[in-house]
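Dear support,

I submitted the protein below through the web form. The confirmation email said the job was done, but the results page showed an empty box. After a refresh the structure appeared. I'm attaching both so you can tell me whether what I see now is the final result or a partial one.
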Amino acid sequence: MSIPKLEFPPFHLPPEAEELRVEVRAFLHETLPTVKSEDRFASWNTFSPQFSRELGKQGWIGITWPKQYGGSEKSFLERYVVTEELLGNSAPAGAHWVADRQSGPLLLRFGSEEQRQAILPRITAGECFFSIGMSEPDSGSDLASVRTRAEPVPGGFRVNGTKVWTSGAHRNHYCIALVRTSGQHGDRHKGLSQILVDLKTPNITIRPIINLAGRHDWNEVTFSDTFIPESCLIGNEGDGWLQVTSELAFERSGPERFMQNYYILRELVRVLGRQPAKRAAAILGRIIARLWTLRQMSVAVAGMMQGGKSPAIEASLVKDLGTIYQQDLPEIARVLAESDATTEEDMADFLDVAQYATMMAPSYTIQGGTTQVLRGIVARGLGLR
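What the results page shows now:
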């Protein structure tokens, strides 16, 4: 039996992408000091409508989308550069992140023209924010077991059920919810649909879920005989599984899968000083080598996607290895800083950063698909199960 090969062909970002990088860096250097944000480090989890509006003015939200919907019709590779620079500079990009990365592309591919015209220009302007309504209590990463039901009624659907880990639902405008519109619970992939939910709709209750760091990013969202108009159905009834799996592809291989806690590496370099000891320099070199390897793998996936391929196995592997790296980094950095920090004042500041990074690290296992699920995808793709 021949085993399929993983491919990460060498790929370099084109000149126009690197030229855009210079523009983005200049914009961030000028803009970030003027932006109010709730956190110095969380970047894609930090909610700043002000920053999202400023980024929208530059045409860098929905950068790959058609101009008729407010996009800039740039390449996926140029979007990659914008993402790298936002994460590398801890820009407070959380307000528009989900809408830009996956909700907007989902509407572009499957939404009605009415939905596109109403929603997409507001996203690109940095004025419309989205949550993901996939996970449910007791379902884990098994999306096919969702129980939230949208029962067809005259003019729309009556929705009952609960979603959890719904990031930003307490302050975002919309949620795209995966629901059952037909069939029985045991039908698994059949009868699933996606609906566009205005989070201010009556009979929706949003309760906070406080994470280990004491932040209110996540929520439990409960639908209680909630009426959703028929015009809010995304795509065709029953096509939800196809749609949601294509949506997940946007999550798994981008820079956010190895740069979410890049801030701790930046802080580590600062506290070690310009001339770290030989041992510290060696450990730091190994950390950066891991990061650069992940970056090259991720860029290769971006190049394949730009070329029209669907590298699902490679994307899953980038996410898995990125999770391991990001969970290893806080402890390695803490131990190294404790032994080699240049001043006590630097160390005190660094420990605040390390503590936050350590408390956030467990969540990386879940985001974009759990480690176990992704390893199953890789194993199936290689013919090992």
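Response: this is the final, complete result; the empty box was a page-load delay. The mean pLDDT is 89.
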